[in-house]
Write a structure and sequence with these properties.
Blueprint: H1 3-18, H2 36-55, H3 65-83, H4 100-116
Length: 117
């Protein structure tokens, strides 16, 4: 399976699990309907997390859920600056400004990637 698709499926699963109420349709858009920039960003962040896990000698598993989620969030933020000259504030919000559902989803993404490495 494509690395970006794994990231996207983990995102959708996390949104469905943690989002309060009905998520926006764009949050749960299937991989094949996701915009190209977003597929590229998902693939890049998957690679960054995978590489981080590998260079840690797999000791990244000892990170807290918050640390894992923060890592995903900062990697995603870098991708937003790469793909957009002036990204929406929500795309580049600091960890403390992200809603709880998004922080939990980011931690889930890290842990899903851990399971594939």
């Amino acid at each position: 399976m494509n690395d970006g698709r794994i990231f996207r499926e983990a995102w959708i699963d996390g949104v469905n699990k943690h989002y309060p109420g009905e998520p926006k349709p764009g949050y749960v858009t299937p991989w094949d309907e996701t915009p190209e920039w977003e597929r590229e960003a998902a693939t890049a962040v998957y690679g960054q997390v995978r590489d981080f896990i590998e260079v840690s000698g797999r000791h990244a598993a000892r990170l807290t859920r918050e640390q894992k989620g923060r890592f995903v969030a900062i990697c995603w933020t870098a991708q937003m600056f790469r793909h957009f000259e002036d990204p929406k504030p929500g795309y580049v919000a600091d960890w403390s400004d992200l809603p709880l559902w998004q922080r939990e989803t980011d931690a889930d993404i890290f842990e899903r990637i851990e399971g594939t490495v």
